[in-house]
Design brief:
Helix content is 50%, strand content 16%. By secondary structure, it is α/β, with parallel strands linked by helices. It has a single domain (4-152), classed as P-loop containing nucleotide triphosphate hydrolases (Rossmann fold, 3-Layer(aba) Sandwich). It has a 5-stranded parallel β-sheet, with helices on both faces. Helix 2 (34-40) crosses helix 3 (48-67) and helix 5 (107-117) packs across helix 6 (126-135). It starts with a strand and ends with a strand.
Length: 153
């Protein structure tokens, strides 16, 4: 049985971490979550350059796990179609299955969740959430057809 790459796509506050933690407990997959690493290293969550470096490091490790037959959860948000398809193609080249978990929520719910968790400094604003909703590239039918399984929540 081959390993599975689980790609969790969605904006902050839609439940990615909650879903990833449940999936980790359920499957034993290794969870690649940049916010946790950034917290551990005492880095600013808004530091995009360091976040990109951590995600690159996580994907190098993730590929090694997949080759070893260990499933991996990518919890980066993966807002861009090209990023998701790149992960999918890399994983497939390693013989892994790929599942997409696509999470969304109304802007008001996102704002309430990120405000309640109080993790970001400065806090996320409604204007940012509305901008991000416009930037997120929702998977289209062609992309969705590439995955072994799609979970839409």
């Amino acid at each position: 049985m081959s390993a599975t790459l689980f790609i969790i796509a969605g904006l902050p506050g839609v439940g990615k971490s909650t879903r990833a933690a449940a999936l980790e407990a359920q499957t034993g997959a290794v969870r690649m979550e940049p916010d946790g690493w950034m917290d551990e290293l005492k880095l600013d969550l808004w530091d995009e350059e360091r976040r990109a470096s951590i995600e690159a490091m996580q994907w190098r490790l993730g590929r090694r796990f997949l080759v070893a037959g260990v499933s991996v959860i990518i919890e980066w948000g993966t807002w861009g179609r090209d990023e998701r398809i790149g992960l999918l193609e890399d994983a497939r080249a390693l013989g892994a299955r790929v599942e997409l978990i696509w999470l969304s929520a109304p802007a008001e719910v996102i704002l309430e969740r990120v405000t309640r968790r109080g993790r970001e400094n400065p806090p996320i604003t409604m204007a940012q959430i509305e901008e991000w909703i416009g930037l997120f590239q929702a998977p289209d039918a062609d992309e969705l057809a590439r995955y072994d399984l799609v979970h839409r929540h």
